[in-house]
Amino acid sequence: MINILLNGSKGKMGKAFTEYIKNIPDFNLEYSIDKENSNLFNSIFKKPDVIIDFSTPASTFNGLNYAVENLIPIVIATTGFSKEEENIIKEYSEAIPIFKSSNLSYGINVFSNIAAILTKKLDKVDIEIIEKHHRNKLDSPSGTAVMIADNINKNCQNKYKYIFEKNKVVDKTKDYNEIGFSSIRGGNIVGEHTVMFIKQDEIIEITHKAYSRNIYIEGAIKAIRFIINQKNGLFSMNDLI
Ligand SMILES: NC(=O)c1ccc[n+]([C@@H]2O[C@H](COP(=O)([O-])OP(=O)(O)OC[C@H]3O[C@@H](n4cnc5c(N)ncnc54)[C@H](O)[C@@H]3O)[C@@H](O)[C@H]2O)c1
């Protein structure tokens, strides 16, 4: 039996996770934590085997600090961390196994690798990432959009700089070393990401659309099974696909 602590249990993802794992015989949701009982971290008697975090960047650190103090593996699904927070998470992964992905969908990670391959094959190309999400999303651009750009950059000697809110930029696109980001928010869109490769006289466009949160939950389940068997370090979906 895998005993789980869920941080962010009352949110959209937390609720979906709670429902989904009712049908997984070896998963036991031992602790459900959200804003109103976040002080529970101070009084946990029996340590969970793993923590899964679908909350907010500030509250992720409640779970993360508890995980480091008690040497418990953690899956961080929350997005919107600052550079400094990202660095702290990396530092903490020297003490415990941490799985962190801005998008736990298997499909989007394959999609992200295809975007990197296309970038390498095309020269003199303007790259634009357009992401669409539901009206309550707190961060922008989405963590997934940045993850896709980081994956492109990692495969291209980090030559791209990021132009956020590109739809508001009124200057010329200066060089072929920029990735532009544009965000659209509305209704209940689960998540859509388009990467446009725009060349003189032709455009290649690839799009991933999420129709249900289950794709993230299925990824979270795989990530939990993976991380509980790892030594210390920082892991991502690329370690699973
Ligand atoms: N990695 C992925 O695949 C993936 C997929 C979907 C969403 N997300 C990310 O997961 C996070 C949660 O998404 P959501 O759609 O459920 O958001 P949400 O706003 O519906 O839920 C966030 C929850 O965190 C809770 N929270 C606030 N302060 C807290 C505290 N101090 N302690 C514990 N909980 C606290 C809120 O009360 C809320 O219930 C977001 O950052 C989102 O971008 C990641």
Shape: elongated
Structural class: alpha/beta
End-to-end distance, in Å? 25 Å
- pLDDT < 50 stretches: none
Tell me about the largest β-sheet: 6 strands, parallel
Instruction: Report the CATH architecture of the largest domain.
Output: 3-Layer(aba) Sandwich
Compute the number of strand runs.
Answer: 11
Number of helices: 6
How large, in whole angstroms, is the Cα Rg?
Answer: 19 Å
**Percent of residues in beta strands:** 25-35%
List all distinct small molecules, including ions and cofactors, that are bound in this structure.
Answer: nicotinamide-adenine-dinucleotide
Plain-language structure description:
The protein is elongated. The protein has a six-stranded parallel β-sheet, with helices on both faces. Helix 4 packs across helix 5 (143-154). The mean pLDDT is 95. It is 31% helix and 27% strand. The protein is α/β, with parallel strands linked by helices. The relative contact order is 0.17. It has helices at residues 12-20, 57-70, 83-92, 106-121, 143-154, 214-227, and strands at 2-7, 27-33, 50-53, 74-76, 97-100, 126-133, 161-163, 178-185, 191-199, 202-210, 233-235. Strand 9 and strand 10 form a beta hairpin. It contains six helices and eleven strands. The chain folds into two domains: 2-100 and 214-239, 3-Layer(aba) Sandwich (Rossmann fold), CATH 3.40.50; 106-210, Dihydrodipicolinate Reductase, domain 2. Nicotinamide-adenine-dinucleotide binds next to helix 1 and helix 2. Nicotinamide-adenine-dinucleotide (NAD) binds next to helix 1 and helix 2.
